[in-house]
Amino acid sequence: MKLLWELGALLVPIVLLVAGSRTASANPERKLKDGESVTRVTVDWHETVAVSRLTPSLQVVVNPLLRRDSPVHDAMFNSLAELKAHFVRYVPWKSYPKLAVTELEPPSGTAECRFITGTKETNEFVHIACGIGQISKVDFASFGNPTGFCGNLSVGKCHAEDTLEFVKKQCIGLESCSFPVNTKTFGDPCPGTIKGFAMQVQCKPPMNHTYYDFDLINQMLEDFMNATSNHSVIINFSTIPEWMYKDKDRVKYPDDPNQIAPYSLGTELVDPTAKQVGDYYGRLVSWYTQGGFVDEYGVERRSPYHYDFQYWECLNEVNGEHKNTPESYTRIYDQMVMGIRRHGDPAHKIKFMGLALGGALHADWYTYWLNKSNHVSDDIPLDAMSFHFYASCENRTDPVNYQEFFARADTLVSQVSNVTSLRDAMSPHTLIDIDETGIILPDDNVVGAPMFPLVYYNAAGAMFAYLYGKLAATGIDVLGESQLVGNPTLPDLDLPSQYPSVAMLNWTNGLGNARYHVLKVLIENFQPGDKLVKTTAVQSSKPGPVGPDTSFCGRVPNLEVMNLKCTDPTATIDKILFASYGTVKGYICGQFEVGKCNAANSTDIVEKACLGKNTCSIDANTPVFGDPCVLTFKYLAVQARCTHGNGEGTGGGGAEPVYAQAFTAPDGSNRRYILVNKTPEHQQLQVAGATGATAYLVDETRPTGPAEELKLTSDTVRLLRYAVMVVVLPKTG
User: Fold this and answer.
1) Model pLDDT, residue 34
2) Main-chain dihedrals φ then ψ at residue 538, nearest 5 degrees
3) What is the pLDDT confidence band of residue 518, given thresholds at 50, 70 and 90?
4) Domain with CATH 2.60.120.740 in the chain
5) Cβ atoms of 237 and 245 closer than 8 Å
6) Range(s) for CATH 2.60.40.1180 in the chain?
7) Any residues with CB less than 8 A from the CB of 496 and at least 6 apart, and which?
8) What is the pLDDT of residue 36?
9) Considering the entire predicted model, what is its pTM?
């Protein structure tokens, strides 16, 4: 089959590069340029500012490209294995029901059913078998749009009248029967419309029926566990079977496991205690950890698996899915823990992670779930909790817009202290995992959306490295990059788009892009227990001492809150140097410009809220500023000054185009830097002590990686746009 995979031409060309150590000037684009401004990086190696608890990791979401019949299956799992990551999150997700849910239909007693969802050109094959005995009766059969659940099926407005008689002739008296489901078999009762199929039979002797199907799910989980062998994993089968909710009709799902469906729709559980949910997950875990389980009818089902799952995470983005509340979610969490322990973890070895919230600012969720009195017993563990962060920008193809990622990242950093403070006060032993960290570009799943340039992956990798450095000082425990596999629409494989901007691997060959290689460099060079030491990065037009700058900035998107604060508690904000609510130009503090859309009252409102105060907050929204451009996405950007000392603002990004942070091992040895170019412009740096160091560089000159290993011949280096460099200094003494 002639595939896009073979051509390697959709996005990332296959580039063969000779591995090995080079000098920093090996690539001509990285040669230093006369007249460029220089960012001078200095370090006090003896002043520790924080001790890191942070582990860099990633999440793997199920995707058809990870199936064994995918042409990139082997390469993708090899890439995962080569990361050697800990705390790897694995998520069979609702978009692919047949890859995520092990029991898609409810137990149906002595009635046995088969369903085909169908398409306008339905042409599937149905097979049904009694296991023992024979099919004695056909209760129902309909080709058209049948409705209802097994045991309570009805014909719809579209129905082929001869379906029942045909099925009876094909099946009664046989141990099993099979036949094609299409208009050739049944005729066309409603031309031009989607037609499905449902049938219900009885067996003799009677037997109870369940609908467990682990085949495809087993394969992908096996491959994941092999690729992460000897490393900790976080397993999250995030999708509750839809039949456990009070739906008016059976929720349909694609016959093809590679197709996407809106599956998680229900809002009220059939069993309000959630014990049914807990038992489902208990049996699922038992299948993989205890060698099988006993089903709802007491039938023992055996498996070959005895995996160790270090962590089990309970559901995904629960503040959005199924309209959960903190109360309803905590009830499900407790029952899931008890069900898993009852069926699949009798020794209580598995640790449990809760929440997986969409976004950081959900104090009501944290405070409820972290309160032990809200759980059914003190035995319910609160081992870890999680939330997610995704940045974006206005234009998916313009690299200048990618600077916005860092402003969004700064907003997250400003929010994290609220989360860690609650954790520290209520449950200090609970780990915090930001287990989905990434970027979703505008129109990412829109058919026909223009493809972004390769440098996007450099910018996304740079944001992750920036967040790693910033969050290492905050008490967060795990930062998981999202996600290993994504893809655009792939017509040759009949695959719909699945967030190509989150991909860490090239969907044409399974090899890593810049996001992957930045993560790999971080995993190989940083670990919990590292000390962060005082690091200063100041830009100047020529070498020499640089005086203090007491101005600072904030930049937030619409509907968020801008917080401004003078670092010295005795200082106050005495001047607003810039303020604009609208389509602000620029991302670096000191380089903001008023765009075409601007609220004329911006400066007056900010001055009124902030002047003379040590701290202030301004809501970035139209009730405060009015709407200078209806139906246009807006930002609030502010540059302020304190009477003395520095300040900080939400999403401010700092005045410098390069982020630098130095680390040491706990004993002060193994000195390292993270250097990140946050801009679409090349940057020169003078890095104290870098001469003779080994550097690992991820930039746009090597789109397929791996990171380039360099021997630095001077303290001066040049970073291309959105480049990331880790510098490991020579050992001293």
Assistant:
1) 60
2) -125, 130
3) very high
4) 111-204, 551-649
5) no
6) 4-47+658-728
7) 259, 260, 445, 489
8) 62
9) 0.87
